[in-house]
Amino acid sequence: MENDPMIWDVDNVLVLSAHTDDMEVGAGATVRRLVESGAKVKSLVFSDCKKSVDISKYPLDVLRTECRAAADHIGIKDLTILELPVRDFPNHRQEILETIYALRKKDDFDLVLTLWTGDLHQDHKVVAEETFRAFMRTDVSVLSYEVAGSSPGFVPQVFFPLAEDDVERKMEMLSLYRSQVERRGYFTINAVRSVMGYHGHHCGAPYAEAFSLHRGVVCGFGRKAHHS
């Protein structure tokens, strides 16, 4: 008799990203499934990455536009995009902490999805660290997602199994970032699919998105009836 996978009862989710494409790469399929389950999802992006835009090819606000299109594609209705300067988050650490803390005080989240403290990108690392600080001594579960291009050494403990349809929907969402697709190695369709396939291998699924567990709050246990 096989065990049933754990079902996490989540009603209110905060998703934090340093940049406009972070969540989509690391947790896009999971977030879509959360939205479809009926969970309230708030997405906060700290930088619209204007400094990274090739203005000879694209308008300055292209990533903001693409981010909103991606959010619409998976049903996120509550999206905020701030304008912190990309690659300069260490100098805005207190502002980031206060922004996250204000959200914590305003809303009663069950789950926070954020970046990983071991990420080599300084912006990703700062958002992860300040998330952990803002949610210290709370009953909120906190998971870190992987941005594969800057997260060597990422060791996940939580896996969200995905089917082929989940992967295809994620590829559709990523393709909305036309200014990024094929320009960066980690953003190619094959690279993203390969990462999900690798994580799926570790949880007995065709694909999966994977998370590092910072804190998981268990409020009770239940049993399902098994039939032989």
| Residue share in helix | 25-40%
What does the largest sheet look like? 7 strands, mixed
Total count of strands: 7
- Using the alpha-carbon principal axes, give the shape: globular
> First CA to last CA: what distance?
8 Å
- Could you say what the CATH topology is called? Rossmann fold
Please work out how many helical segments DSSP would assign.
6
Order of helices and strands: EHEHEHEHEEHHE
CATH superfamily: LmbE-like
CATH domain class name: Alpha Beta
Shape-level CATH architecture? 3-Layer(aba) Sandwich
Q: What is the number of domains?
A: 1
Give the overall average pLDDT.
93
Structural class: alpha/beta
Instruction: Give the spatial strand order of the biggest sheet.
Output: 3-2-1-4-5-7-6
The radius of gyration computed from the alpha-carbon positions, rounded to a whole number of angstroms, is 17 Å
**Strand share of the residues?**
15-25%
Q: Can you tell me the residue ranges where pLDDT is under 50 for at least 5 consecutive residues?
A: none
What does this structure look like?
There is one protein chain. The protein is α/β, with parallel strands linked by helices and 228 residues long. It has a single domain, classed as LmbE-like (Rossmann fold). Helices cover 35% and strands 17% of the residues. The protein contains six helices and seven strands. The protein has a seven-stranded mixed β-sheet, with helices on both faces. Helix 3 crosses helix 4 (122-134).
